[in-house]
Amino acid sequence: MTEPSISTDTSGLTLLGRQAGAPDNPDAAVLERVPNPHPGTRYCVRFTAPEFTSLCPMTGQPDFAHLVIDYIPGDWLVESKSLKLYLTAFRNHGAFHESCTVGIAKRLIAELAPEWLRIGGYWYPRGGIPIDVFFQSGEAPAGVWIPAQDVPGYRGRG
User: Where is this region: Disordered (predicted)?
Assistant: First the structure.
């Protein structure tokens, strides 16, 4: 079985293989995409960001989360360096947990038009209460292996 010809042209990318600093804020961040090397084949792509950081918009104190992003690509994949820089842009950005988590999902959907996407935002406690935020773009398509996110809930000292 021969593999289809896959484009490896990265000339249109502005971040890959180049020095790039963190954007000042998520809106200024560039999310780049590359062609899906297996269009028409349903498979799940997972990105995990166990050290995601943003700022509380009320106190300016840091908030930390473990993000898990799963998606079934359509014609496009997110270029991983641009995703890393996009997520890093939240470090100095004040927003509530819900705004960050759902906003990341909506931005990825707008840029990639995936067949399906979900995000789990497992936020570490502030004020003694963890706030976990979950979003998905619809029902997961049948016949695709989508692993459980398996991020344990916060148990405190119990």
Answer: 1-22
Indicate the DSSP class of residue 126.
B
Decide if 54 is inside a domain. yes
In the chain, the number of structural domains is 1
Cite the annotated binding site by residue number: 78-80, 97-98
Asked if residue 58 is part of any domain, the answer here is yes
Helix (H) or strand (E) holding 134: strand 132-136
User: Per-residue pLDDT averaged across 123-131, rounded?
Assistant: 87
Residue 75: which domain range? 31-136
* Catalytic residue numbers, as ranges: 56, 63
DSSP sequence for 54-79: EE-TTT--EEEEEEEEEEE-SSEEE-
The CA-based dihedral angle spanning residues 102, 122, 67, 88, taken in that order and rounded to the nearest 10 degrees? 80
Give the CATH number, domain containing residue 90. 3.30.1130.10
d(C-alpha 80, C-alpha 78), whole Å: 6
* pLDDT single digits (tens) 39-87: 999 999 999 999 999 999 999 999 999 999 999 999 999 999 999 999 9
User: Which of these ranges, 8-17, 52-61, 65-74, 112-121, has the smallest mean pLDDT?
Assistant: 8-17
List the binding residues for substrate. 78-80, 97-98
